[in-house]
Amino acid sequence: MGLLYDAGMKRLPTEISTSGKSLPEREFSYARVALDVPVAKLFDYAIAGELKPRVGERVTVPFGARQRCGVVVELQAASSVPAQRLKPLGGVRDDAPPLPADWLELMRFLSSYYQRPYGETVIAALPPRLRSVKPLPRRSLPADPAPGNAAHFVPNHVLTNAQAHVLERLASALGRFGAFLLHGVTGSGKSEVYLHLIARVLERGAQALVLVPEISLTPQLEGQFRRAFPLARLAVMHSGLEDVARTSAWLDAARGSAAIVLGTRLALLAPLPRLGLIVVDEEHDPSFKQQEGLRYSARDAAVYRARLAGGPVVLGTATPSLETWHNFRSGRYERLELPERASPGSQLPRVRVVDLRREPPQSGLAPALVHAIEQRLARGEQSLVFINRRGYAPVLACEACGWAAGCERCTARMVLHAADRRLRCHHCGAEAPVPAACTTCGNVDLRPMGRGTQRIEETLGALFPAARIVRIDRDSARRRAELVRTLEEVRQGGADILVGTQLLAKGHDFPGLTLVGVLNADTALVSTDYRAPERLFAVLAQVAGRAGRRERPGEVLIQTRYPEHPLFRALAAHDFAGFAESQLAERRAAGFPPFVFEAALRAEAPRLERALAFLRHAVSLANPPSEVRCYDPVAHVITRRAGYERAQVLMHSASRPALQAFLASLSEQLFASPQRDVRWHLDVDPIEFD
Question: Measuring CA to CA, which of 340, 466, 626, 649 is 20 to 30 A from 688?
Answer without folding.
Answer: 626
